[in-house]
Design a protein that fits this description.
With about 575 residues, the chain is of the alpha/beta class.
Length: about 575
């Protein structure tokens, strides 16, 4: 059992969070009791980003041939903030970011925080209608986009004012990011913000038909960053105790393989790097050989992605040609790694640390972490709650805590949790309890503090780290006049964890044109939501007593594994 290093880690964490230390924690009164917070965590994101000034000359962002130091990112982000204020953005205004992993994404996010606005990152894979729906839902007044997202929004007649980064073909050059920042030396006016005011709205696909906006405060995000950093520092001390070696003095570097519109990319990699002085190497599109080359060239020490990515790295035919000696951590999230892959990582990289993390949009990435011998001993587990802030519990339907080994709904409690869903009081009340827990909708059990996820309560498919709401796909499919009814569920898929499968009820199966239907979906759904397989039936679906489709019977008849 993974006891030895767990005990070392807990002892190290207790030492670095004691009174008088940078990571000192204190109890904070809540309506239901007390919750730990970091004494020295900056009160707002704007104050947090000032930590860049501690690393001014170090490289921060690398994108292809472009290199930006911390000082250069700080300067450009302030120019964005000043330009936003010049546009009239005030405290609490929502500003959308919709673009690929470009440096401008990061300049925009920091700039929005410095301006007093609320950042609303949107899924860059969404089509125009999906983007437009979220913009309307958030009540955003400005969108910072790239060329492709601009074209998608224009195709559906969106009227929101846009600023376009990496523009290649604009009807009005005044819309460009370059024209927007008309003074590169400008500084924003100070904004009076408190730690419990809103900082971000990240949209997450729930079990309803449309994504929900999780609203997070400044305090929640800055404390999440301190929690990640404290966990990492304790882990370094464990490594030193086990190996007898001093930690490397080389600047840490992370390869950003996942989208910035996810909290993994935004929080765990980008924002955390500000605190620890880490270099971030941007990939705007996943390519395993390019990733191998960048790990060698930029001396990447930390790799994080969905399990498929690390598998494609380890199995790539060119892997042996690259120097991967700088790698220290090979982490994954979004889906479980097969035990055989964990063992393969151990064989190929005996001196590295494979790991697994579990976190959600609503928790700002806080959930569970499994690393070192804990992960090697229990690769099916997502690990323990990252202390000192986070707690895990398994709850029954009435909110009662269940004993070890009993399957129930996974709940997370920490100061890092979102305050609720944007303009969704009913959804907020259902997921965020009065005593501070966020009910994840995932089913699992705890044993010796180690969490194992077994299924999901939500009608959701998890595909390569992306959440796909079944009802959303069903609604899009039934918008096609050919389809009378649709039933969507997940089926096991080796590469991305799950694939989307659909069964459609049509009047005449012989006349149903699958190619025509797939073309129809191109205009209604992001590509990752499209069914990989479509079965066609000519009889109505079986029903439950409530009148709902009996999805368990449908999936049993069609070889699927529907969400519970």
């Amino acid at each position: 059992m993974p006891i030895r290093t767990d005990e070392l880690h807990d002892a190290a964490l207790a030492h670095i969070t004691r009174a008088g230390e940078l990571f000192e924690v204190k109890p904070m009164k809540r309506s239901w009791g007390e919750q730990l917070v970091f004494t020295n965590a900056p009160p707002t994101l704007g104050a947090f980003f000032m930590l860049m000034l501690r690393h001014v000359d170090l490289p921060f962002l690398i994108y292809k041939d472009e290199r930006y130091t911390f000082a250069e990112v700080w300067k450009r982000s302030n120019a964005v903030a000043a330009a936003l204020q010049k546009k009239g953005i005030q405290k609490g205004d929502r500003v959308v970011i919709a673009m690929r992993n470009y440096p401008e994404w990061i300049f925009s996010f920091i700039g929005i925080a410095l301006s007093g606005g609320i950042a609303v990152p949107l899924n860059a894979w969404w089509q125009g209608a999906e983007l437009a729906d979220a913009i309307t839902d958030a009540g955003a007044s400005l969108a910072l986009v790239d060329q492709q997202r601009h074209e998608r929004l224009m195709s559906v007649g969106t009227t929101i004012e846009q600023v376009v980064a990496r523009a290649s073909a604009l009807s009005d050059p005044a819309l460009s990011f370059q024209a927007f920042i008309d003074d590169e030396d400008a500084m924003p006016s100070p904004v009076d913000l408190g730690p419990d005011e809103d900082a971000t709205i990240f949209y997450t696909s729930g079990s309803t038909s449309y994504p929900k906006g999780a609203v997070t405060t400044h305090r929640a995000i800055t404390n999440a960053m301190f929690n990640f950093a404290a966990f990492g520092l304790a882990q370094q001390q464990v490594e030193k105790a086990v190996s007898g070696k001093e930690p490397s003095t080389e600047q840490p570097a992370s390869l950003l393989t996942v989208p910035l519109f996810h909290v993994t990319g935004c929080h765990s990699i980008f924002i955390l790097s500000v605190l620890i002085g880490r270099k971030v190497v941007l990939l705007d599109k996943w390519d395993p050989e390019q990733a191998l080359a960048l790990i060698e060239k930029e001396r990447v020490s930390s790799f994080m992605g969905v399990p498929t990515m690390s598998r494609e790295l380890t199995e790539h035919p060119s892997r042996a040609r690259y120097d991967l000696s700088s790698l220290v951590e090979i982490n994954a999230g979004g889906a479980a790694r097969p035990a055989s892959h964990v063992q393969r990582l151990r064989e190929l990289f005996p001196d590295k640390r494979p790991g697994m993390a579990y976190g959600l949009t609503e928790t700002n990435g806080t959930g569970a972490i499994n690393t070192r011998d804990g992960y090697l001993a229990s690769p099916a587990s997502t690990g323990r709650a990252p202390k000192p802030l986070a707690e895990l519990a398994i709850l029954d339907d009435d909110g009662n805590r269940l004993p070890d080994g009993t399957v129930g709904e996974i709940a997370v409690r920490a100061i890092t949790i979102a305050r609720g869903y944007w303009n969704r009081p009913d959804d907020t009340a259902a997921a965020f309890t009065e005593d501070g827990w966020f009910r994840t909708g995932d089913l699992g059990h705890l044993k010796d503090d180690y969490l194992t996820i077994v299924d999901r309560k939500k009608d959701m498919i998890l595909r390569g780290g992306e959440n796909v709401a079944c009802q959303e796909v069903e609604a899009a499919m039934m918008a096609d006049p050919q389809v009378l009814e649709a039933c969507v569920f997940g089926v096991p898929e080796e590469r991305l964890g799950e694939a989307v499968k659909a069964v459609v009820y049509v009047q005449s199966p012989a006349d149903f044109n699958k190619a025509q239907h797939r073309a129809f979906l191109e205009d209604h759904l992001a590509a990752f939501k499209h069914p990989a397989e479509i079965d066609v039936v000519g009889t109505p679906f079986p029903r439950l007593g409530s009148g709902k489709i009996d999805k368990l019977k449908v999936k049993a008849a069609h070889g699927g594994r529907a969400a519970a």
